[in-house]
Write a structure and sequence with these properties.
This protein is α/β, with parallel strands linked by helices. The strands form eight sheets. A seven-stranded mixed β-sheet has the order 12-27-28-29-25-26-13, covered by helices on one side. A seven-stranded mixed β-sheet has the order 23-20-21-22-14-17-24, with no helix packed on it. Strands 4-5-6-7 form a four-stranded antiparallel β-sheet. One of its GO terms (cellular component) is cytosol. Keywords: Aminoacyl-tRNA synthetase, ATP-binding, Cytoplasm, Ligase, Nucleotide-binding, Protein biosynthesis.
């Protein structure tokens, strides 16, 4: 029992302490509350795993709530993308909710707050209001409209709601304390006029609630027990509690906001504004470009839900922000794909090998193991013939003793096939090697049980039969930024650190078993890395994205 307590993170400790005090387990309820103004990224994945993980741990419902209070930036396509991401990660929500579901209730509460003297309509512009707020060391000044009569406030607020006032002409502000040490408590704005169509309510409303007002009250409406958010919302907690205190009656259950530290990822940015800029300026193809840190980008690149959940679990929940090396995320991908991805053979930079003593026109099908890490992985058949492709880097005319691949006069084993020996090369007029001519030991077939098949040679190469090879497009993705923290230099724009070599497109040859591979399927190209079939693939032209290399080879 003591061991279990020690293993709890501080969020779980808060819940356990609440359960010992006055909470009941059946009252626990959590939520994941994205704003539908962009695609979710790896930071959101940690929050998804935290909230839905708590739901699984405590057998408690978890709502998916869209805090859709800004019609200028929010779109239905973002809603659908977010739902797809959460499902893909393997989680199910109890209810699908929207802050816009509560617009009428929020408005009614705001009217009650006017009547109770807790809010007022301010007719100043945003710049003036900001100046009057003061500084952390200097108290703010009260608005000249702060003491408007209740009747005037109600009439103006109704006119705002009915679209009878101009945008930016009035706002509704909470009446709290202009001298508070917490600047968020200095009469924050609750509503602004926006004559914009909303993705769900269309033109029903001409006023929209601010996030701080809508978020906590939405938690209260849904009876969320614990509202977990990132550390930048710590100063908002006082306001969160103040707003809820204005609508929560005696005996009702107020939500509890608590904060955890954001986990930043190296060699990328996660600001939605900056990610959108990358899309708009054509640095990347789209929000789901495989170089993007979005969940949809990671999915398209070939990351698995398990690898992302394992990443989130391994970095844990903390109280201090830190930057996680992207190499750790890549490690989690390799660890999972090593267990699950079938091994296949693909040659990325082809060099033709002619086996001169193999009968012309003959072919045979050899047995290859799909995945030695998966006992149920089974086998497949791969074709072998007189002409094959190997990687250019796997051959040298001359090489030292430490080069264990193919060189003139030396032997290597072809994976699942025969031992071959390089005899001579064929070159063009410029001296470039066009072909390597080899001989094979026909008694050395892998798995045949002959003495020759048991011979030890130091190198084993992957290959593809020329006659049967399928030509495909391969996209070799690398890190999007050349530096660990693109946001870290205040003197330089983050765009100046974009890696110009983050994408290389090549033509490659793969074994024919991949002809039926479907978008989203993962494979290990032996000795080259993990790859995934891209949605751009067609029956005529397959496209493979490199997820990660077999080992971390990045320098920077």
């Amino acid at each position: 029992m003591q061991e279990e307590k020690k293993s709890l993170n501080f969020i779980e400790q808060i819940i356990e302490e609440d359960l010992k005090a006055n909470y009941k387990e059946e009252e626990l309820k959590f939520r994941f509350p994205p704003e539908p103004n962009g695609y979710l990224h790896i930071g959101h994945a940690s929050s998804i795993c935290l909230n839905f993980g708590l739901g699984l741990k405590y057998n408690a419902p978890v709502n998916l709530r869209f805090d859709d209070t800004n019609p200028i930036k929010e779109e239905s396509r973002y809603v659908e993308a977010i739902k797809k991401d959460v499902k893909w990660l393997g989680f199910k929500w109890a209810e699908e909710c929207y802050a816009s579901d509560y617009f009428q209730q929020l408005y009614d509460w705001a009217v009650e707050m006017i009547k109770n003297g807790d809010s007022y309509v301010d007719s100043q512009d945003s710049e003036t209001i900001a100046q009057q707020k003061g500084t952390p060391n200097q108290p703010g000044k009260e608005s000249p409209f702060r003491n408007r009569s209740t009747e005037e406030n109600l009439a103006l607020f109704e006119a705002m709601k009915n679209g009878e006032t101009k945008e930016k002409e009035h706002v509704l502000r909470a009446k709290i304390d202009m001298t508070s040490s917490n600047m968020l408590m200095r009469d924050p704005v609750m509503y602004r006029c926006l004559h914009k169509a909303h993705h769900r309510t269309n033109n029903d409303w001409s006023i929209y609630p601010m996030y701080d007002w809508a978020h906590g009250e939405s938690d209260f409406i849904e009876q969320i027990s614990h509202s977990f958010c990132t550390l930048e919302f710590l100063p908002h907690r006082e306001l969160y509690n103040w707003f809820i205190s204005k609508v929560c009656k005696e005996g009702e259950f107020p939500p509890k906001q608590r904060e955890f530290a954001r986990r930043n990822l190296s060699h990328t940015v996660v600001s939605k504004r900056k990610l959108l800029k990358l899309v708009e300026e054509g640095i990347v193809e789209s929000w789901d470009d495989p170089r993007m840190p979005t969940i949809s980008g990671l999915r398209r690149r070939g990351y698995t839900p398990t690898s992302i959940r394992n990443f989130a679990d391994s970095i844990g929940i903390g109280k201090r922000e830190n930057r996680i090396d992207v190499a750790h995320l890549e490690f989690c991908a390799r660890e999972d794909l090593n267990k699950t991805a079938p091994r296949v053979m693909g040659v990325l930079d082809a060099l033709k090998v002619v086996i001169t003593n193999y009968p012309k026109g003959e072919e045979e099908w050899l047995t290859a193991e799909n995945n030695p890490e998966d006992e149920n992985g089974g086998n497949r058949e791969v074709p072998f013939s007189r002409e094959i492709y190997i990687e250019k880097e796997d051959f040298r005319e001359e090489a030292n003793r430490k080069f264990f691949r193919l060189k003139l006069g030396k032997e290597v084993r072809l994976k699942n096939a025969y031992i071959i020996k390089a005899e001579k090369v064929v070159k063009d007029e410029a001296g470039n090697i066009l072909e390597v001519h080899c001989t094979y030991d026909k008694e050395s077939k892998s798995g045949s049980g002959t003495e020759a098949s048991k011979r030890k040679v130091k190198g084993t190469l992957h290959w593809v039969s020329v006659k049967h090879a399928k030509q495909v497009e391969v996209r070799l993705y690398d890190r999007l930024f050349m530096v660990e923290n693109p946001d870290g230099d205040k003197e330089k724009d983050f765009m100046s650190f974009v890696n110009p070599d983050s994408l290389q497109v090549i033509q490659a040859f793969v074994e024919p078993s991949l002809a039926s591979a479907l978008p989203g399927e993962n494979f290990q190209f032996q000795r080259k890395g993990y790859f995934c079939v891209d949605p751009d693939s067609t029956p005529e032209k397959q496209v493979f994205n490199r997820t990660v290399t077999l080992r971390d080879t990045w320098k920077g």
